[in-house]
Design brief:
The structure holds two protein chains of two kinds. Chain A is mostly helical. Chain A is built from four helices and no strands. Chain A: One of its GO terms (biological process) is tricarboxylic acid cycle. Chain A: Belongs to the cytochrome b560 family.
Chain lengths: 130, 126
Amino acid sequence: MQTDKRPLSPHLQIYKLGWTGIPSILHRMTGVALTLGSVLLVYWLAAIASGPEAYATAQAIFGSIIGQIILFGFTFALYYHLCNGIRHLIWDAGYGLKIETVLRSARVVAIASVVLTVLTWLLVFIVGGA
Amino acid sequence: MSLRTPLSRAKGLGSAKDGVHHWWIERLTAVALVPLYIWFVWGLISHAGADYETVAAWIGSPVTAVLLVLLLAVTFHHAQLGMQVVYEDYIHTEWLKLTSIVLTKFIAYVLAAAGIFAVLRVAFGG
């Protein structure tokens, strides 16, 4: 019996990832990014523990252009994973699972994480006076 | 009477009675991390541009140190649970999958220990 001509279920790459698939994969990607980025948190704390000189070096690295870009991306990843994580916890509690609610909460999470990221950096520049 | 086949029982790959443990701990740590990170980000914002002495005094103060120790322990526990799921979903070579999971868990706990040690060192002024 020939079996290789049967219609197959389309592969993942065939589907258009809308406001359901993209938030899902973004949750994973931000989770992995945060895991990698958490090394920076440990480094920052270790620098504080090591003394003023090590701290000055850490601040110089974080204050450089590349450092600032990484920290900005890290902030967005944190807020996205936090907001979408709360969305997942609400689902786990059994709420918000209707498709229109799922699509709306996906947009709320996207907007909230962008707004919180920008707001955080505005506050950092206002407080820091840079 | 068990309905499972002798082979299935012999292989020992059936229910170990902790099927949802990983899932539950991932959620439990997630719930804990929500207030911890809102607090920590707020603390970082309010110390933007502060000098070394101010930042060290903040990190080493009792409330901050305790909350940071919790944040570090819970963060790395949550991170290695999440990374494990990612590896299980995308790596299909058994030895590579297992190695990645074990290495990530080890590295996560080394980082957690290093971070906690740093906070305690600042707190106790060592």
